[in-house]
Amino acid sequence: MKEDQAIAALGALAHPQRLRVFRALVVAGPQGLTPSVLAGQLEVARNALSFHLKELAHAGLVSVEQQGRNLIYRAEYGEMNGLIGYLTEHCCQGAVCDVSASRCEC
């Protein structure tokens, strides 16, 4: 992942509602969710949800597929893992790091 992609992804996730939407899609798994289901689960207005989904899609964190009359939104796990990899790429200066610890013991 390049720096500009990481910035876009982090920027998209830096809003409480978008973070909740993304987490709900991660939990939903590969089958994804429709906007109606997401709006009901998160108790958010559909027009606001549409805006947040667009921002997440623009950052590459969410994909959308038309299935009949429904839109299905899914988390993009490759992008999510790419962001995590980018953030931890040089963790502990290449030494083995115990990520279960509250801090790295490098």
UniProtKB/TrEMBL annotation:
One of its GO terms (molecular function) is DNA binding. Residues 1-95 form the HTH arsR-type domain. Pfam families: HTH_20. Keywords: DNA-binding, Transcription, Transcription regulation. PANTHER family: ARSENICAL RESISTANCE OPERON REPRESSOR ARSR-RELATED (PTHR43132:SF2). This is ArsR family transcriptional regulator. It comes from Pigmentiphaga kullae.
